[in-house]
Design brief:
Elements (H helix, E strand, L loop, with lengths): L25 E6 L9 H11 L2 E6 L11
Parallel strand pairs: 1-2
């Protein structure tokens, strides 16, 4: 789902019981440097502001391909 999604996704732990009174406290946003990945930031900003949540921006890159000796 994540690899084929054309829109930002909000992932939540399905095993956590959440009530209406609870708020999001932390948001981790993985960014891969593509123009599309930054499009989620305005949405994250609104969610964080509404919940007084801490946002962590995580830069992710594909692993470098190296030739193994052999």
């Amino acid at each position: 789902v994540l690899r084929s999604a054309r829109v930002p996704l909000l992932l939540c732990n399905p095993h956590t019981q959440v009530t209406a009174a609870e708020r999001v406290e932390r948001i981790v946003v993985p960014l891969d440097g593509s123009p599309g990945s930054a499009k989620v930031l305005p949405v994250v900003e609104r969610i964080a502001a509404a919940n007084d949540a801490h946002v962590t921006l995580l830069t992710v890159e594909p692993p470098a391909l190296t030739e193994l000796p052999g």
